[in-house]
Amino acid sequence: MSTHILTVDLGERSYPIIIGRGLLSGGFDLARYMPGNHCLVVTNETVGPLYLEKLQGCLAGMTSRSLALPDGESFKTSATMQTIIDELVTDKAGRDATVVALGGGVVGDIAGFASACYMRGVAFVQVPTTLLAQVDSSVGGKTGVNHEGGKNLIGAFHQPNVVLIDTDTLSTLPDREFRAGLAEVIKYGAIVDIDFFAWLESNLQALLDRNPDELAYAIRRSCELKAAVVAEDERESGRRALLNFGHTFGHAIENTMGYGEWLHGEAVAAGMVLAAEMSGIDKSELRRLTALIESAGLPIKPPPAGAGRLREAMQLDKKVQANKLRFVLLHSLGDAFVTADYADEALGEVLQSADT
Ligand code: NAD
Ligand code: GLY
Asked: According to a count of CB atoms within 10 Å of the terminal CB, is the N or C end of the chain lower?
């Protein structure tokens, strides 16, 4: 498999997404994407022992330090972010320092937010190691941490200088995490690319077997689709909201369960089925979506939380405007739209039916 380079086209803030096998062990020259000669690698206690040494082999000519965060969504907090800032201060890191995120979406979001805040913004490099981070969270510049009152409530847009995706890192990813990442891959097909959706239906088993060629294609296509949406609407004033398909329900599920109980991708998977039901799409299309999600080993229903609790949690969603929730719904598979103009009974029915 060869290396593929995509571009996130954002004018002077454009950056490459480099996708390939063995990039870390091959000593890929990451330093050339950094403005100065100093960087802080932020990882966690699980990923560090697996890949930190390899990553350090990509930093020839740089002075680098590293910081391993505790592992888990429950540590995606301002307090954890502060430990990164403390490290940068202790290290006397200057404006030309770079923060490198080595890990999944949690590390990427926290480290990215720290890089957005330190000295009002220093350079940032993403080296995502989960499928979810490779196809979604490392691309597009959303960074942040959770608040007790809701997920990702504190954050900033801060684009990386480069996203380096070594697909070999997925070999150590636990199965449950891998499947959770597939939820976001399925999302792209469902919202904007029916051909990709059909490709996923035909190639799901190869993906579940982590066949390198199919995996590389799924990651590349997902990144292409996300990059195109982000290039069109970096700050989510319109089209980018489509990427939140399943997330209004998904965040509510995560919130009512307590962060970390269900994985983000699992909550999004069940959320996509609810959103598709609420859309009232053709029954055969709903069956296709549900079947693909189920075959990927993902949940198609939320846990019995009580419709009322889910609804309450949904009010905290960042997409609430003038007390009205905004949903990403489907005209049909592969064709999503955002709306605040939905029938309240339709939402009630979907939540009630999820409870039974
Ligand atoms: P995660 O970062 O918690 O990683 C999942 C688990 O896998 C962790 O235990 C981690 O230590 C481990 N891990 C990571 N890479 C590994 C590897 N190669 N081998 C073995 N273990 C490995 O979870 P995630 O699913 O990557 O990310 C979820 C987070 O991403 C959520 O906080 C979500 O809000 C955020 N997110 C952000 C965006 C965005 O645009 N910024 C988009 C989607 C999700
Ligand atoms: N994951 C949604 C976004 O990046 O906009």
From this structure: C
